[in-house]
Write a structure and sequence with these properties.
heterotrimer; A mainly alpha (332); B mainly alpha (117); C mainly alpha (117); B: 117 residues; mainly alpha; 72% helix; elongated
Chain lengths: 332, 117, 117
């Protein structure tokens, strides 16, 4: 029965992707991409990857759709069909290339272990150690959180730095040089009374849910990455319905930029603190008297750092894009 | 689940190739980025499918459960998703700048303008 | 007692599933955007509510019950609002609902169907 659902969701994914190829209206393409993200999130739930599903639902269906839509309002809605014969638009060549590559890859899958096999190489290498020893070494139920924040804390630090750098990159590319010039608030949203009232009821709930995901991440699915995106989406909602000027009063841009750096700093300083106490970088065992307690403290602060950075970078990116869009005016 | 075999991986390959096709064949830079997202998500699906163990549950330790799916692939993909949106945003920012400098986001028009200059 | 709740729960689940399907049929078959959206949003709200109540009757612990209640509240808040926002956006961008023409019959949809994939 479960495999039946797998097949349905995977076929829907392929259908959606095929539709994205054919549709020329980029608004529709964006919506299809959102559907694609949501479908893959539901597939991840079937694959027991609840943490991943969370993130993909918030990112793939929510934030990325929003960002692409904001960009579209600046660049135009329709994809132009390239009919100029001189252009290097050669669909037949591309199709051949794609087909050949795909055929080779499918040939390559013959060597893969069957789906769901317990003796596949992926399952036998380091994972048994994580699953067996996590309970005694770290003593938190969610193994994903313990691997993310403790066993592979170094990797995660790198990822957080990448996210931070991407935020800086967006700022450097399209930050408005005019320091928050008073832009006319978009009047169209003023009349959406129902939307405003419902979102006023929802925003506190979303924020509380974000905090729950952040601090309950050791016990259930959740953690800094998911909490960051959920927390940021509450601010997106506010900014969309009440205008950027109002949102800027709630979250000061300079503060958010400082917070983005502070999250990375918090993560790094937990590592340095472990070094000061005589251990290696990010070795949480040295943070407190006994090992397990130190691990708990380390994971708590590291996840907090991740959450702060992810939320702030997402807010920075969204605000930068929308400020840019308002400055440009909307080519409706 | 036995007869599924390699079906997941085939779907992954198909999705990946669709994304690849969009990236190389579409003229619009935003659509290229969306194609890149499809490609990226297909890789996520591959990792997560590899981590699934038949009869396993989510890797959250509980009493009376002995078989868990692979937490490592989940960790890798979880971070990759958030990094992915951050880099996509960077790409979109570059597209916005290109639009401002060239007045278009269609690849052939950008090439034409480059040749003239 | 448990027998009654089980039957009631399954009745609600089946009814909810049926409403989901009928909503989808409406989404595909109705003539214009507003009726389609109506079919989708109204049946979805009720169907999701029924499925959630059905699951609540089978909830093993009070925590699960509470979480389901929260999801229900969330769905009841967001689903109609999303429908409202969609309809308003459509009206705002100049899409007029199909009304009976002078002869009392409904004209065929003059626009290409939105996203008829």
């Amino acid at each position: 029965m479960e495999s039946f659902i797998h097949i349905i969701i995977l076929s829907m994914l392929v259908t959606t992707a095929a539709a994205i190829v054919r549709v020329k209206d980029l608004f529709a393409v964006t919506m299809l991409a959102g559907i694609y993200g949501l479908l893959s999130a539901s597939f991840f739930v079937l694959m027991d990857a609840h943490d991943v599903a969370f993130t993909e639902a918030a990112v793939g269906a929510g934030i990325s759709t929003l960002l692409i839509l904001t960009t579209l309002s600046m660049t135009g809605r329709f994809e132009k069909a390239a009919e100029n014969p001189k252009s290097n638009y050669k669909p037949a060549l591309a199709l051949t290339l794609v087909t050949v590559t795909g055929a080779l890859l499918i040939y390559g899958t013959q060597d893969m272990p069957a789906f769901g096999a317990a003796d596949a190489p992926v399952q036998t290498h380091v994972v048994p150690r994580y699953l067996n020893d996590s309970a005694t070494e770290i003593d938190i139920p969610n193994v994903v959180a313990s691997v993310l924040a403790s066993y592979r804390g170094y990797d995660t630090f790198g990822e957080v730095v990448v996210i931070f750098t991407a935020g800086i990159g967006v700022l450097a590319l399209i930050m408005s040089t005019v320091s928050t010039a008073p832009v006319a608030l978009r009047a169209s949203m003023e009349e959406h009374v129902i939307l405003r009232i419902v979102s006023k009821m929802l925003i506190p709930l979303i924020l509380i849910f974000g905090l729950y995901v952040q601090f309950h991440g050791e016990y259930g699915p959740g953690g800094g990455f998911q909490a960051g995106v959920i927390f940021a989406s509450a601010f997106f909602l506010y900014a969309m319905l009440f205008g950027l000027t109002a949102a800027r009063k709630v979250v000061n841009s300079n503060w958010v930029q400082a917070l983005a750096a502070l999250g990375v700093l918090l993560y790094g300083s937990v590592g340095v603190l472990a070094m000061i106490n005589g251990g290696n970088f990010l070795d949480y065992n040295f943070l407190a008297q006994d090992d397990v307690h130190g691990q708990h403290m380390g994971i708590l602060f590291v996840e907090l750092g991740v959450g702060i950075t992810v939320a702030s970078v997402m807010i920075i990116i969204f605000f930068t894009f929308s400020t840019h869009q308002q400055r440009d005016g909307e080519p409706d | 689940m036995e007869f599924l075999g390699l079906f997941n991986y085939w779907v992954v390959v198909v999705l990946m190739m669709i994304g690849f096709y969009i990236v190389i064949c579409s003229n619009n830079l935003i659509k290229k980025l969306i194609g890149l997202t499809i490609f990226q998500t297909s890789v996520f699906i591959m990792y997560i499918s590899m981590g699934k163990i038949e009869g396993g549950t989510a890797p959250i330790l509980a009493e009376g459960v002995t078989l868990y799916s692979n937490p490592l692939t989940h960790v890798l993909i979880l971070t990759a998703i958030v990094v992915g949106i951050a880099t996509t945003a960077l790409g979109l920012a570059i597209v916005v700048r290109i639009k401002e400098s060239y007045g278009t986001v269609e690849e052939d028009e950008i090439h034409a303008k480059d040749k003239k200059a | 007692m448990s027998m009654v709740t089980t039957y009631l729960s399954w009745a609600l689940l089946v009814l909810g599933g049926f409403l989901c399907v009928s909503g989808s049929v409406g989404l595909l078959r109705f003539p214009d955007f507003f009726t389609r959206m109506h079919a989708a949003s109204v049946t979805d709200t009720l169907a999701t509510g029924m499925i959630l109540v059905g699951l609540m009757l089978q909830a093993p612990t009070w925590i699960v019950f509470g979480k389901l209640v929260m999801i229900l509240v969330f769905v009841l808040l967001t689903s109609p609002t999303a429908g409202h926002a969609l309809a308003k956006a459509a009206l705002h961008s100049g899409l007029k609902p199909l009304l009976p023409g002078k002869g009392g019959k409904i004209d065929a949809d003059p626009r290409p169907s939105a996203g008829g994939v």
